Amino acid sequence: MTFLFAFIVGGLICVIGQLLMDVGKLTPAHTMSALVVSGAILDGLGLYEPLIDFAGAGATVPITSFGNSLVHGAMAEAERSGIIGVLTGIFEVTSAGISAAIIFGFLASLVFKSKG
Predict the structure, then answer these.
(1) CA distance 23 to 18
(2) Structural domain spans, the chain
């Protein structure tokens, strides 16, 4: 059942993104930003964690989870370190994923030729 819920929730997030581009005529960058912000807002309201508990990877894999991670890290660190924790918490939680994207992107650029 967990796989079904993950598929449905992840699919709905993707459908929302596709509708924003097709019906709303938003660019992919605007759509991605809207999904990140919506994930951040849902986490700020305390609604994203129950969604993760319900759907697992269906809620943690899409881009909305990045917004969730930013707010979640900022709020957790703010409780420990005050207002400075808001800034450090954002980087602490997301640094591994961002660092991996940069490193693997660089390695891919060494292996493959650009067509542009």
Answers:
(1) 8
(2) 2-111
